[in-house]
Design goal:
- The complex is a heterodimer of chains A (239) and B (1059).
- In chain A, 7% of the residues lie in helices and 28% in strands.
- Chain A is built from 2 helices and 11 strands, in the order αββββββαβββββ.
- A 4-stranded antiparallel beta sheet of chain A has the order 2-1-7-8, with no helix packed on it. In chain A, strands 5-6-10-9 form a 4-stranded antiparallel beta sheet, with no helix packed on it.
- Chain A is elongated and about 75 Å long.
- Chain B is globular.
- The two termini of chain B are 34 Å apart.
- In chain B, the strands form 19 sheets. Chain B has a 7-stranded antiparallel beta sheet with strand order 24-23-27-21-22-26-25, with no helix packed on it. In chain B, strands 18-31-32-33-30-19 form a 6-stranded mixed beta sheet, with no helix packed on it. In chain B, strands 37, 38, 40, 41, 42 and 44 form a 6-stranded antiparallel beta sheet that branches.
- In chain B, helix 1 runs antiparallel to helix 3.
- Chain B is mostly beta strands and 1059 residues long.
- Classes of the chains: A mainly beta (239), B mainly beta (1059).
Chain lengths: 239, 1059
């Protein structure tokens, strides 16, 4: 079903013979709450959050292409911001990215018709893969509902609780600042679960010998012997 | 991460995911813990799925359908959050998330918890000597999680169970992304609601709910995700099931049902950027044209057509169009009844063409109906439906001068979760027609069109191009292309940044697909009768030891039973009558054979001690009544006789030992003369599969037991029995044990009932226990491990012009506690074959023979293992209950034209699951099922691949059912990534060693990643159905990067390229 446009906009589009050169408006909100407003044509425009007028900085070098499809691929756009303003020691954009994490920031890219003062297109996404140099930073902006990034049935059976401490489902309101995620309500001096009715672990042992579970055990030997269990990744030898 | 296709999840371990279930599903679940009591009862707590589940429909313990309302043995907890502040008192019989009462029967130092948020069952399994297996097993049918339901304005109208795909899709989005940590059923905030276009969801929900005829909704979804699954995979499956698509624009998520749509924009030549119009069929050759729908049937398998229905006194009678397979005690289900009289219950009475079950309801006179009969256990049977696009198959088949065109099948499996046959067929037609167009001869495939248009274009009707979104239908005007004018759907739309084209103004690049109206047909299919067969080894029923309640003799009839002739009826001494819990007799005695009583009938019935019939215990009375003035002559005089037909024992085989213990005594009502002897005979009627039977008779001490009971004391009769040879070319179907009670006068004087009174002989049956293959004289109820092979290495063969000799070397693991390893290493000469002929072999592991064999039915040669062509009955025999198939498809082996030859087959190849990600040079991160020949995928840098890209030479998709999941470490950060592969999938370690997933890969092996190295931390075997992709790349290293999170784990291709 086609999008609903501002009343009368189709008539004015027909009258003016198509879209004028667009103004790209980019509203970025990082996870710490900081919000930045960028455009490719400096000016004051209505911002996304409350439609109030906002001065937008002229940092957008390009916005797009923005690809949308009806299949399961993630819609995605590209965004390039200039990294020249500031001084030779600290550039404005680099400084902001130094102080605030842009990965995962909410990013709303709007295509704005300056003549009619109408938003003709809007793409809501999140910032990822920041990559830049001394002149510009490039970002990928996948759609907000990037279904590849989210999982279902991802809560494991565990002897410990899997809930985030003091989240709604945890429901703990105690004074502790951390949680051991264990269920030991009778342990003396324990600082364990304080919302025991919401504990979602399974501390009673499962008789896993009843079913066939094939899992190999760590092997010994190899270079220098010792336990060659998991260790940190390092560069591969691909030669 | 697989779409929902798992029928049953059975496990007992931590670390696996809590499943997520929508709609109806069958599950075993994850055994949280179990505790054995001193009386050998076992208390078990089993996790089913994330909450909040709606409820349990049926539950079997040791394959016996139990009463889920019996709180002494079964508690269901839906998986709400625990009741904060309520405490952990042991008090719950289910229905809430308090601490379960069965904790009170296990040691106090077990942790008594609520399992907050987890749907689980707690049950108590008593020892059951009659169970088919000594192992504790269980299974349940459930209704999945409740979901939020909204109106078009976004107001939540309910929080309830639903099979509507729209609300399930919305719940997936809420559960995975929008409100992941929320309490069960928590309301959405205004900001969260603003992310959803509720009008589109409500419209889609209404569209799915439409009755397309026969009470069938257009779309329903029942899916059961048993492992961690990306939201993308889940939504893909749900969109497939519901024929819908999701688009996100203007900050909102929209759901649209795919349907015939009117064009909303017309593109003419003035709107098209010059030279940008590109019609294409580049993707046509690789497109799938054989669609294999995989689903678990929500309906019982239809065995027989129901033609007549009647009901009296809360007993329903279903009459069939022909013979049926049901026996007394089966859990019969009537469905798709045209008069709405769907029903389910244990068969109380059956005859050649009807069954009777308890069914509450008003009396209904006999009425003609249409309907289907099945069993409760046959629900959720995995089924496959195949749909071919023959036009496309012919189009891409082999060609040659003078050679007839052949048909080439590109197979794709489509997961439909738990569904119905007719719905699967409709949705498969949607995929078939939408992707390939009408299946006509001559076949002309639909075009894909790519073109660039001015974004601000307005057509003659005032429609604006920039308002069109993917999924909308547009018209290409003849001024753009005479050949390609018509309606198309926008498949993809890409806005091009200003300055990225040479033209003035904004441009959008559209990818269009031709619309095919046939894709949206809602013509419902009819349910297919699969055949009146009885499943072996399935859930069995207890509680009925005989056939019906005084159903009459020569011609048992419905009316006769509901309105017994008072002249034939005598009350029991305790005044009760027709109070049957254990069941009674299938026939009355034969009065005519009794001297002096021609024309008179005898009434016999068994009265149960209600409340404990699950083990046939309690005193059940078998009354044999003598009408007034009846005489039983002196010694030698035959008396009245009653036959009690016990529950049939199924799946019996020659040589199997059967055991019975019957506890009984006999009494009379006091009128009987002391010293009267009652004769009890127990014999076995063995029914062959061809419908004939054999009565084990006197002369065989194993088969006949006669007991003269002359005391009033309770006593046990222990009987042993060996199933005999059924005869040449025949096989046993089931055994029907029969108790024959005969009142025989062994005294020296006649026994005469008085003129006014009734002489009643009272045979009391306390318990009847049936054992299969175990010795009731010991406490030992053991069973050897069954033989599901974990691995097999495939087959090889040698051949001559007249013979083929297959050879195998198989390694497998039994499911006993020790996971005993076994091997089968042998060969078999098959002679008498024709030269230069390819034969198909259907190999399986025979549970009875404990060795490898092959289907002989319909074959040629000696033994007749070699088959010409394929036949689904051969596949059925290969996969029957006591056979474990050793190949997904028959293995082809050929004789030579001269001399000798050979080959190999079986094994599972080296492939990745189709949803593993790789990185393609131009398309980015894609799943490997989307790879095409000629694509370039990311690999390590080497002399041959200096840019880190390697070209794909081959990518073939095939179905597969045995997988190995390999997880890789990220150091202290946990799991870096994981890869599902086939068992034989190769890896190359950084030291150059070649390993395979299921055999030689170990936790110490260094595997290269895109940025370093990693190690496997878990290698786990899984059995489920999914597609594998076999990839060959163009480098001598044969490696590329893959992963379920991102393409980063270096793996090896299937078939090394030797170029």
């Amino acid at each position: 079903m086609p999008r609903t446009l501002t009343a009368g906009y189709s008539t004015s589009l027909a009258r003016q013979g198509g879209l004028p050169a667009p103004v790209w408006l980019v509203d970025i909100t990082t996870s710490d709450g900081s919000t930045y407003y960028f455009t490719d044509v400096a000016g004051t425009y209505p911002r996304v959050s409350d439609s109030a007028n906002q001065v937008y900085e002229e940092w957008v070098k390009s916005a797009g292409p923005i690809r949308r499809s009806r299949d399961s691929r993630t819609d995605v756009g590209d965004l390039v911001l200039q990294n020249l303003s500031g001084n030779s020691i600290e550039r404005d954009l680099a400084q902001r990215m130094k102080n605030h994490e842009f990965e995962g920031a909410l990013c709303v890219i709007r295509n704005y018709d300056p003549l009619q003062r109408v938003v003709v297109d809007r793409f809501d996404g999140y910032i990822t893969e920041p990559d830049g140099n001394e002149e510009e930073f490039r970002y990928r902006v996948p759609q907000l509902l990037d279904a590849q990034q989210y999982d279902l049935a991802d809560d494991p059976y565990s002897e410990t609780c899997t809930l985030r401490f003091k989240s709604d489902r945890c429901a703990s309101v105690g004074v502790n600042v951390i949680c051991t995620k264990r269920f030991i309500p009778t342990a003396p001096g324990a600082t364990d679960c304080t919302a025991v009715e919401h504990f979602n672990g399974s501390p009673n042992p499962a008789p896993n010998n009843l079913y066939q579970i094939i899992t190999q055990t760590p092997q010994r030997g190899g270079n220098g012997g010792g336990n060659r269990g998991p260790r940190d990744p390092r560069r591969p030898n691909v030669n | 991460m697989a779409p929902s296709s798992s029928l049953i999840q059975g496990s007992a371990t931590l670390g696996i995911s809590k499943p997520l279930a929508y709609g109806y599903f069958r599950a075993v679940g994850n055994l949280l813990f179990q505790h054995e009591l001193t009386d050998k009862s076992i208390i078990a707590f089993v996790g089913i799925a994330e909450g909040e589940l709606d409820g349990v429909e049926r539950f079997w313990i040791r394959r016996n359908l139990i009463d889920t309302a019996d709180t002494s043995i079964f508690h269901f907890h839906a998986g709400t959050e625990g009741d904060l502040g309520h405490g952990l008192a042991v008090e719950s019989n289910g229905g809430d998330q308090h601490v379960d009462n069965l904790f009170s029967q296990i040691p106090a130092n077990a942790y008594r918890i609520t399992y907050s948020g987890l749907g689980y069952v707690a049950f108590k399994a008593k020892p059951d000597a009659k169970a088919p297996s000594a192992e504790l097993d269980w299974m349940g049918d459930y209704r999945g999680v409740k979901v939020r339901i909204f109106d078009a304005a976004g107001t939540q109208t309910s929080y309830a169970f639903s099979t509507n795909p729209a609300w399930i899709i919305l719940d997936c989005i809420i559960r995975a992304a929008l409100k992941k940590e929320a309490l069960k059923g928590a309301a959405l905030t205004a900001a969260e609601k603003a992310r959803i276009d509720f009008a589109s969801f409500k419209a889609a929900a209404d569209y799915f709910d439409v009755d397309i005829g026969g009470g069938k909704k257009r779309a329903e979804a029942s899916v059961y995700f048993t492992e961690k699954t990306t939201l993308a995979v889940a939504l893909d499956q749900l969109k497939l099931i519901s024929r819908s698509y999701i688009v996100e624009y203007d900050g909102q998520v929209h759901l649209f049902a795919d349907q015939v749509k009117a064009s909303t924009f017309t593109i003419d030549r003035n709107m098209v950027v010059a030279g940008s119009f590109e019609p294409s069929k580049k993707a046509l050759r690789q497109a799938a044209n054989r669609f294999v729908g995989q689903y678990n049937d929500l309906n019982p398998l239809k065995n027989v057509d129901i033609t007549t229905f009647e009901r009296y006194s809360n007993v329903a009678k279903y009459t069939f169009s022909g013979t049926h397979p049901y026996l007394v005690g089966d859990n019969f289900v009537a469905f798709n009844m045209s008069n709405g009289a769907n029903g389910a219950g244990k068969v109380k009475k059956q005859s050649t063409n009807y069954v009777m079950i308890d069914q509450t309801g008003a009396d209904v006179a006999s009425v003609a109906v249409t309907g289907s009969g099945g069993t409760a256990e046959s629900r959720f049977t995995p089924r496959t439906k195949i749909l071919d696009h023959e036009g496309h198959q012919q189009a891409i088949g082999q060609r040659g001068t003078g050679v007839s065109s052949t048909f080439k099948q590109n197979v794709i499996e489509l997961p439909f979760g738990n569904n119905t046959a007719e719905r699967v067929e409709r949705m498969m037609k949607y995929v078939k027609f939408r992707t390939l167009g009408d299946d006509t001869i001559p076949y002309v495939a639909p075009w894909d069109i790519k073109l660039r248009c001015w974004y601000g274009s307005v057509d003659g009707a005032g429609n604006v191009l920039l308002a069109q979104v993917p999924g909308d239908v547009v018209t290409i005007d003849a001024s753009v292309s005479e050949e390609h004018a018509g309606t198309y759907e926008i498949f993809e739309a890409t806005t091009i940044p200003t300055g990225d084209n040479d033209d003035q103004g904004q441009v959008v690049e559209l990818v269009l697909k031709q619309t095919i109206a046939a894709a949206f047909s809602d013509v419902a299919d009819t349910e297919v009768t699969l055949g009146a067969v009885r499943p072996g080894n399935g859930p069995y029923s207890i509680g009925t030891i005989a056939d019906g309640e005084n159903w009459g003799s020569a011609s048992p009839g419905f009316a006769q039973n509901l309105t017994p002739n008072p002249g034939f009826e005598y009350p029991a001494p305790d005044g009760s009558k027709w109070d049957v819990a254990l069941g009674v007799f299938s026939s009355n005695n034969e009065p005519d054979a009794f001297p002096g009583n021609a024309g008179k009938k005898w009434t016999c019935k068994v009265l149960a001690n209600a409340g404990d019939n699950t083990r046939y215990s309690g005193s059940s009375h078998l009354y044999i009544s003598l009408p007034p003035e009846t005489t039983i002559p002196a010694i030698g005089g035959g008396g009245p006789e009653c036959d009690v037909y016990l529950e049939p024992i199924r799946n019996v085989k020659q040589g199997q030992r059967m055991f019975y213990r019957i506890k009984l005594n006999t009494q009379s009502n006091g009128s009987a003369t002391a010293g009267t002897v009652r004769n009890i005979i127990i014999y076995h009627r063995l029914w062959r599969t061809d419908g004939t039977f054999f009565d084990a008779t006197a002369g065989d001490p194993n088969n006949l037991t006669t007991n003269w009971i002359s005391t009033l004391a309770w006593r046990n009769l222990d009987l042993a029995y060996t199933v005999p040879d059924p005869g040449a070319g025949k096989s046993w179907d089931y055994i029907q044990p029969i108790i024959v009670a005969v009142v025989t006068n062994s005294t020296g004087a006649p026994i005469v009932s008085s003129a006014a009174g009734v002489l009643i002989f009272d045979l009391r049956i306390d318990s009847i226990e049936q054992y299969r293959g175990v010795d009731p004289t010991t406490n030992e109820l053991s069973k050897s491990g069954s033989v599901p092979p974990s691995f097999f290495n495939g087959f090889t063969y040698t051949s001559t012009t007249t013979s083929i000799t297959p050879a195998w070397n198989i390694t497998g693991y039994r499911t006993d506690a020790a996971l005993t390893q076994f091997t089968a290493n042998s060969s078999q000469l098959v002679s008498g074959l024709s030269a230069s002929t390819s034969y198909n072999f259907y190999f399986f592991f025979d549970e009875n023979l404990a060795g490898v064999s092959a289907v002989a039915t319909g074959g040629t040669g000696s033994p007749s293992w070699a088959h010409v062509g394929t036949n689904r009955t051969w596949t059925a025999e290969q996969t029957r209950q006591d056979h474990i198939p050793l190949s997904l498809n028959p293995l082809a082996m050929a004789t030579t034209s001269s001399g000798s030859g050979g080959g190999s087959g079986g094994g599972d190849g080296g492939c990745l699951r189709e949803d593993v990600f790789v990185e393609e040079r131009t398309r980015g991160k894609i799943q490997c099922r989307d790879l095409r020949v000629g694509d370039w995928i990311k690999c390590g840098v080497s002399d041959e691949t200096p840019d880190g890209w390697v070209q794909v030479l081959r990518a073939e998709i095939l179905p597969h059912s045995f997988w190995v999941h390999v997880e890789f470490t990220d150091g202290e950060n946990g799991v870096l990534d994981w890869v599902p592969t086939t068992c034989g999938h190769p890896w190359t370690t950084t030291s150059g060693d070649r390993k395979t997933s299921g055999e030689t890969l170990s936790l110490g092996d260094e595997i290269a990643t895109a940025t370093g190295i990693t190690y496997p931390v878990s290698i786990r075997a899984e059995r489920y159905r999914a597609n594998k992709v076999s990839i060959t790349v163009a480098s001598r290293a044969h490696t590329f990067f893959c992963g379920m999170n991102r393409p980063q784990i270096e793996t090896h291709n299937f078939q090394p390229n030797t170029n």
